[in-house]
């Protein structure tokens, strides 16, 4: 029979590991994730759900920011979305802050990238954290499992190109 | 007449569904990082591995050194690798190409070139182009490089 100390250590290790993998939950913006895989599950939006949300008007309609590569944005992006710079770079986060500055803190904002598979995306996590750090309380991330091409464009959701 | 929205989406959606396959690879002429002009048409008769990548793409950085080895091993049999960076800025591309000592041309891509190839909307993407200039495979995402190498070798013997 393992002792109480061993059981406590196993429980502690399990709790720590659960924070390393999957979609963590957090309440303090300072703890917001830097990796896309750490964005809380509850704050992910599936493509079909976002496509439905885009049909709404007024306050229900989210503000969309693409937080990835500009070359990709020029090829195709979600209509109405603004280019907010790559979240993985300091210049991108500065642009994101500038783009978000006029918005009320409770504005529904959806960020997306899709440059790479979700677990490899370098941009979503830092952009998500930045918006949290700025005090935005209603930030969602579009969950693109493979990339923007496969999970949005190829599925026939609306796109536009250009600047 | 179609709207800009619909036309752009329709064309790129076709590209995303793999409709570039078995068609002549779109031609382009661009300068590589050393200033040398790369004209895809001039590569007819060669097997071309056209790779779209970026410095921020982790999987791409695994592939590039392997492509360098293939260029060295199969160049004499007619393999030509061309790497197109989809970075927004050439500075990190030059630095990485230097660090990896890439032995094949690296050129900067843009939205126009990406759109020509059906939309490069996720990286890496590799097109295998046969000796007749026809796209025979489009390989997206982190891939099995052993399998890709077999596909390249198959094209080289045909």
What is the β-strand count of chain A?
5
Structural class label of chain A = alpha/beta
Q: In percent, how much strand structure appears in the residues of chain B?
A: 15-25%
Write down the overall mean pLDDT of chain A: 84
Radius of gyration of chain B: 15 Å
Characterization of this structure:
The complex is a heterodimer of chains A (163) and B (158). By secondary structure, chain A is α/β, with parallel strands linked by helices. Helix content of chain A is 35%, strand content 10%. Chain A contains six helices and five strands; from the N terminus they run H-E-H-E-H-E-H-E-H-E-H. Chain A has a five-stranded parallel sheet with strand order 1-5-4-2-3. In chain A, strand 2, helix 3 and strand 3 form a beta-alpha-beta unit. Chain A starts with a helix and ends in a 10-residue tail after the last helix. Chain B is α/β, with parallel strands linked by helices and 158 residues long. Chain B has one domain: Glutaredoxin. Helix content of chain B is 38%, strand content 22%. Chain B has five helices and seven strands, in the order αβββαβαβαββα. In chain B, the strands form two sheets. In chain B, strands 5-4-3-6-7 form a five-stranded mixed sheet. Chain B has a two-stranded antiparallel sheet with strand order 1-2. The longest helix of chain B has 17 residues. Chain B is globular and about 35 Å long. The termini of chain B are far apart. The N terminus of chain B is likely disordered. The interface between A and B is medium-sized, with 30 and 30 residues.
């Amino acid at each position: 029979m393992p002792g109480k100390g061993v059981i406590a250590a196993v429980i502690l290790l399990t709790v720590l590991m659960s924070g390393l993998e999957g979609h963590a939950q957090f309440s303090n913006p300072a703890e917001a994730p830097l990796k896309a895989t750490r964005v809380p599950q509850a704050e992910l939006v599936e493509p079909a759900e976002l496509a439905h949300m885009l049909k709404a008007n007024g306050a229900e309609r989210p503000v969309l920011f693409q937080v990835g590569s500009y070359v990709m944005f020029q090829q195709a992006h979600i209509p109405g979305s603004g280019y907010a710079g790559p979240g993985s770079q300091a210049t991108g986060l500065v642009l994101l802050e500038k783009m978000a500055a006029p918005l009320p803190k409770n504005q529904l904002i959806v960020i997306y990238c899709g440059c790479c598979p979700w677990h490899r995306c370098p941009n979503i996590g830092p952009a998500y954290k930045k918006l949290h750090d700025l005090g935005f309380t209603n930030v969602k991330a579009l969950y693109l499992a493979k990339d923007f091409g496969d999970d949005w464009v190829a599925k026939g959701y609306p796109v536009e190109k250009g600047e | 007449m179609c709207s800009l929205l619909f036309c752009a989406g329709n064309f790129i959606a076709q590209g995303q569904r793999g409709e570039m396959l078995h068609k002549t690879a779109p031609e382009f002429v661009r300068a590589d990082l050393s200033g040398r002009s790369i004209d895809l048409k001039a590569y007819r008769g060669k097997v071309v591995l056209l790779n779209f990548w970026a410095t921020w793409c982790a999987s791409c950085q695994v592939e590039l050194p392997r492509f360098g080895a293939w260029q060295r091993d199969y160049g004499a049999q007619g393999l030509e690798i061309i790497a197109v960076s989809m970075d927004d800025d050439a500075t990190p591309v030059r630095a990485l190409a230097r660090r990896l000592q890439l032995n094949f041309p690296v050129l900067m891509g843009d939205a126009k070139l990406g759109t020509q190839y059906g939309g490069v909307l996720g990286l890496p993407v590799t097109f295998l182009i046969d000796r007749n200039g026809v796209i025979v495979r489009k390989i997206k995402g982190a891939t099995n490089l052993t399998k890709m190498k077999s596909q390249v070798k198959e094209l080289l013997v045909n």
